[in-house]
Design goal:
The protein is α+β, with helices and mostly antiparallel strands. A hairpin with a 4-residue loop joins β5 and β6. Helices cover 23% and strands 8% of the residues. The chain is globular, with a radius of gyration of 26 Å. The protein is built from six helices and six strands; from the N terminus they run ααββααβαβββα. It has one domain (22-358). The chain has helices at 18-68, 88-95, 152-155, 177-184, 206-209, 302-312; strands at 101-105, 111-114, 202-204, 253-257, 287-292, 297-301.
C-alpha cells in the first residue's frame, strides 16, 4: 500500500530551539512589564477622573439645594439645639419631633432612619449623635452628620438613592463587592451583617457646618480656637451657616474624599478589625479630590495643606492663628491624626478649619 503523506503548501514547520524559546519568553516578559503598568495607570487614571466628575455633580446638586433653601447648607440638627445644651430629648420635649435622617428603603420595603426620635417620634433612639455635624468626645467621637452626605434629604438632588454611584468613587478601598452590586442593581438602600452600612466616599467639612465661633481662629476673645457648641452665645453653636458666609470660596473645601486612594495604602493596622482604610490626612503623600465652595473640584494634597499652614503663621509673633484648630477635645493631632501612616503628615484641614466656613484650607488658589 502506498504511503500517503500530507504536506502543507507552506512546507513543513520546525519547532523552536531552546535558545529561540528563551528569546521569545524574554520579549514577552519585557512587553508584559511595560504594558501591565500602563494598563494599570490608565485604569487608575480613569477611576480618578470618574471621582472628580462625581464630585462636580454633587457640587452642582448643592447649588440646587441652596437655591431651594435660601442659600443654606444641608444640616441634620436644629439651629437652636444649643439652647438645650445639645440634648435632643430636651429639645423634643419642648419643640416636638426632630426629623431624622432617612438612609433609604430596602427592596423588602423597610425604611431605615438615623435620629434621636423616641416615643411617637420617628428615629433610631441614638440620642441624635449622628445628626450633629461632629462629635468631639464621648462614645460617638469622630462621628456626625458630616459622614452622611447621601441621605434622602439631599440625595433627591442627585439620583434619589443612598447607594448611587455618584456618592462612591470606583476605587474607594472601603467599597465592597456587595455594595457595588447594589449600586449596579439600582437599589436605594440595603444593609446586612456582612456589609453593614457603607458611607459615601465624600465627607462634608464639619467645621463649615457649625457656627464659625465653634472653631475660631484665636485672634480675639470672641473667637477662641475652640468653643463647645453647647456654650456659644444665644445657643447658636449648631446654627448652620449660609453659603454666603464663606469668605474664601475657592480656598475652603466643602467635600473631600475621605480615604487615601492615591497612593493606595491598604488597611490601617492601628484601627480595630483591620478593615479600615487610611484617611486622606494619614499620609504626607496623599492626593484626593475636593469640592470647594465656589463649585470647583480639584486635587487637594496633604502637602499643600501643610505648606499653607506653615505660610499662614505670622512671623515673629506668638499668634495662634492657623488654618486648622489643634485645641479641640480631639487632641493636638486633630481628626484621627494619631493613626497616621507616617510621622511627616500633620493636618486636619477640611475637618477642623479655623473659623469654620469663614476660614481657608489652603492658600493656593486653583
Amino acid at each position: 500500500m502506498k504511503n500517503t503523506r500530507l504536506h502543507s503548501r507552506f512546507g513543513s514547520r520546525r519547532g523552536f530551539t531552546l535558545t529561540e524559546a528563551a528569546a521569545v519568553a524574554a520579549v514577552v516578559a519585557v512587553a508584559t512589564s511595560i504594558t501591565v503598568p500602563v494598563f494599570r495607570r490608565v485604569g487608575c487614571s480613569a477611576m480618578r477622573q470618574q471621582s472628580q466628575a462625581q464630585l462636580m455633580t454633587i457640587a452642582a446638586a448643592h447649588a440646587a439645594y441652596a437655591a431651594d433653601f435660601d442659600g443654606r447648607q444641608f444640616t441634620a440638627c436644629p439651629d437652636d439645639l444649643g439652647l438645650f445644651g445639645g440634648d435632643f430629648a430636651a429639645y423634643q420635649a419642648a419643640n416636638g419631633c426632630v426629623p431624622p435622617m432617612t438612609l433609604g428603603t430596602s427592596a423588602s420595603g423597610q425604611t431605615t432612619v438615623l435620629g434621636h426620635g423616641t416615643g411617637s417620634c420617628e428615629g433610631s433612639a441614638d440620642g441624635g449623635a449622628f445628626q450633629i455635624p461632629l462629635n468631639f468626645s464621648g462614645p460617638s467621637r469622630g462621628q456626625g452628620s458630616f459622614r452622611w452626605t447621601n441621605v434622602r434629604q439631599f440625595n433627591t438632588y442627585v439620583g434619589g438613592r443612598f447607594y448611587d454611584q455618584a456618592f462612591y468613587a470606583p476605587d474607594d478601598p472601603a467599597m465592597t463587592r456587595k455594595v457595588q452590586r447594589w449600586i449596579n442593581q439600582g437599589r436605594d438602600f440595603e444593609q446586612d451583617a456582612q456589609s453593614g452600612i457603607v458611607n459615601s466616599t465624600y465627607d462634608y467639612s464639619p467645621a463649615a457646618m457649625f457656627d464659625p465661633r465653634v472653631l475660631g481662629d484665636g485672634t480675639n476673645p470672641a473667637w477662641p480656637q475652640w468653643q463647645n457648641p453647647n456654650t456659644v452665645a444665644n445657643g447658636e453653636g449648631y446654627r448652620s451657616p449660609s453659603n454666603a458666609q464663606c469668605l474664601h470660596p475657592s480656598l475652603k473645601t466643602r467635600l473631600l474624599e475621605r480615604h487615601c486612594m492615591e497612593p493606595f495604602l491598604g488597611s490601617n493596622p492601628s484601627v480595630a478589625g483591620g478593615q479600615t482604610p487610611y484617611q486622606w490626612n494619614h499620609s504626607f503623600r496623599a492626593r484626593g479630590y475636593a469640592a470647594f465652595f465656589d463649585g470647583s473640584v480639584r486635587l487637594f494634597t496633604t502637602a499643600e495643606a501643610m505648606d499653607s499652614e506653615a505660610r499662614a503663621r505670622v512671623p515673629g509673633t506668638n499668634s495662634p492663628a492657623r488654618l486648622w484648630v489643634k485645641g479641640t477635645p480631639l487632641g493636638p493631632q486633630g481628626f484621627g491624626g494619631e493613626l497616621s501612616e507616617d510621622f511627616l503628615v500633620s493636618t486636619s484641614a477640611h475637618y477642623l478649619t479655623a473659623s469654620g466656613i469663614r476660614g481657608r484650607d489652603t492658600l493656593s488658589p486653583p
